[in-house]
Amino acid sequence: MDKLVIEGGRVLSGKVRISGAKNACLPILAAALMTEEACLIKNVPDLKDISTMIDILSELGRDVSRKGDEVEISSGSVKNVTAPYDMVSTMRASIAVLGPLLARYGEAKVSFPGGCVIGPRPIDLHLKGLRALGADITIEEGYIVARAGKLKGKRIYLGGHFGSSVLATANTLMGAALAEGDTIIEDAACEPEVVDLVNFLNAMGADITGGGTPTIRVSGVKILKGAEYSVVPDRIEAGTYMIAAIATGGRLFLENAEAKHNLALIDKLEECGGVITETSGGMDVSRRGRAIHPTDVTTLTYPGFPTDLQAQTMSLVTICDGISVITEKIYPERFIHISELNRMGAEIFLEGSTAIVHGVKKLSGAPVMASDLRASAALVLAGLIAEGCTEVSRIYHLDRGYEHIEDKLSAVGASIKRVSE
Ligand code: EPZ
Fold first, then answer.
1. CATH code, 129
2. CA 165 / ligand 1 centre spacing (Å)
3. 389 catalytically annotated
4. Does the model's pTM come out above 0.85?
5. Average pLDDT estimate for 200-222
6. Residues 89 and 194 in one domain
7. How far is CA 52 from CA 57, 87, 162, 171, 348, in A?
8. Helix, strand, coil proportions of the chain in percent (round to 5)?
């Protein structure tokens, strides 16, 4: 297993190219199952989760090849409709094949994904959306078994206990795209990744409006055709490098980053002392003055503050000049990083789903253990600002979602290397 060894205290400066968004790309690759024509997806990041989705498409019988940042799904039909446990258990987003298989082939068998380290991850809204379209769904031997003659359009309210759901919206709208008649999804997720999926489906010939708003309207079409599509830049990767620039007191130009997708983060980072300028080709990020100021953050669905940047923001405010308060409203248990940050000298207390962060003068490098993707990124950021050496182990989590992170950080002045344990 690999680990990252980081010598902290370097000021980052230079340009980082932001990759295509993992969370946009995964449902887009799944959507390619909805046509038998070839699709070419561009700006695809080189990540473990993407290889897992490519493996699933291959397992289902599609011929998929990758060249650089392009993935081609050749013309052809699926040979079976089962996404097996060993694949789904490594990546929950595999559930995104449920809607496409059901819509195109009238049946799907996808392993039930279960919980994960960031807390329970129910799938009731996925099932609600597809059942509303007429699917008959049962849980058998750990699998979601779905069947439908022809899905039928419907008005569906898709809000849940924690608001809207990104992948449940994706599954429902993929089902609706090939359904008979019109569908209206109310309380749909508004995340840029949903908008990207809508744009891809429309490029395939779907008839969908309202992507990016809580009301998505879908007029079902009979068939979808192949399409060529370039994935939106990754707002979570961009946000992580924005925090790296401010935390180290450096200056980074984030090529391709879209400021409009990170307004909630920008608002909070400016409160902390960040200076963020949007330019035509990306974003310029630096820090005003020496101190990092405290802030309060509550994670919410888009356009609120993203849960996927909560841990990284916590690393930043460990060294602020005051007390910060961070409340998690999407995954109330997503706080495993706190104990590792405290091992590095942070002073963070958890009260329910709110973390109270007392800023300290400095962090001190230590061996720490990554527990999930974004928590791992938070530990890398903490390593960059800490005095001394930090060793982050179990970095396979990072490889699921950050393309070549050690290369990108080294190129802008970080002392970070990957070593085999
Ligand atoms: C997506 O997961 C992202 N993954 C997650 O990113 C991200 O944290 C999450 O959205 C929230 O922004 C992908 O896009 C591949 P949700 P998703 O359904 O769609 C509850 C990362 O680090 N809920 O929007 O699975 C759920 O428990 C990952 O890259 C239900 O109650 O998340 C949560 O509280 C981790 N019932 C809230 O909704 C359901 O059926 C939002 O989750 C589904 C979800």
1. 3.65.10.10
2. 6
3. no
4. yes
5. 98
6. yes
7. 9, 7, 28, 18, 35
8. 35, 30, 35
